[in-house]
Amino acid sequence: MNTQSASYAVIDYVDSHTAGEPTRVITSGFPALGDAPLPDRVNLLRTQHDQYRRAVCTEPRAAEIVVGALLLPPTTPGSVASVVFFNNVGYLGMCGHGAIGVISTLQFLGRIAPGTHALDTPVGTVTCTLLDSGEVEIENVPAYRHRATVRLEVPGYGPVVGDIAWGGNWFFLVDVGGQDINRARIPELTRFAQAIRTSLNTNRVTGADGAEIDHIELFGAPSGADTNSRNFVLCPGAEYDRSPCGTGTSAKLACLAADGTLAPDQPWVQESVIGSRFVGRYQRRGDAIIPTIRGRAFICGAGKLLIDANDPFAWGIR
Ligand code: PYC
What we know:
The chain is α+β, with helices and mostly antiparallel strands. The protein has helices spanning 38-48, 50-57, 96-108, 186-202, 246-259; strands at residues 8-18, 21-28, 67-72, 79-86, 91-92, 115-121, 124-130, 135-139, 144-154, 158-166, 170-175, 215-220, 229-234, 268-271, 277-285, 288-308. Helix content is 20%, strand content 40%. Strand 3 (67-72) and strand 4 form a beta hairpin. The chain is globular. The protein starts with 7 loop residues before the first strand and ends in a 10-residue tail after the last strand. Pyrrole-2-carboxylate (PYC) binds at residues 21, 67, 92, 95-97, 169, 235, 241, 243, 245-247. Pyrrole-2-carboxylate (PYC) is lined by residues 21, 67, 92, 95-97, 169, 235, 241, 243, 245-247.
């Protein structure tokens, strides 16, 4: 394969999925972003080079469910790497399934062995433990409930009550009671979650400091006695999380801690709409709730994305 031709730009990647949710780790080929703090580099990527995000996460090279993870050198002494997460519509603060995918990818590349490794993200450093079993435990940034039992009028559905919580991204969490959350209901759940998000935006209901709530998390009945809950998570854009959502499970743990319904260190088994699982627990450090999420990623591809300057869809179909 001749990829050295002057007409191609080359982006190297490794694909994995965590509990069904894909992560595409970019190991080289993005423009240099300097050595400013990570949030400033995200801003540079967003404002000057956003076409790279689109090339990686949208058609014709990807389905819109793909989460990209740009690997960068560590920004904190002792960390193994930094990472910037993004998807088909923008950038993510943290990403739980993605961090599990990044750690498995670093092992696949021979850069780490089982043990504990710190990973820098734009919203803080997370501590990742790669277990001998191949599972990964992510000790996330502190999570918290921002507002409880927020009543929202959702056109076509009526009043909906939910909590607003931070787990590395902003979530609106709605308990849909004993409702079954299953694959057959994905179109219906997607419409409901989209209507909630539209209502949050229309009514200017936000996270702290006016932050947009871009993830909607619906909780229903667990599928069996060995799980606690099953969820459906609408990601920014129109796609749902195939995994139980690491940052969403962190937000849920913060709500359970605030309600006093889950004790520190007690496991919480969170199922996704496709039936995959994460095990969560939390610790209290002072006033902070520190969630830990355990899950497993599998490597499922590696290669080069080629960008031909003559291709009208080189940077995605818009
Ligand atoms: O696992 O945190 C997560 C996540 C966020 C968006 C998709 N997955």
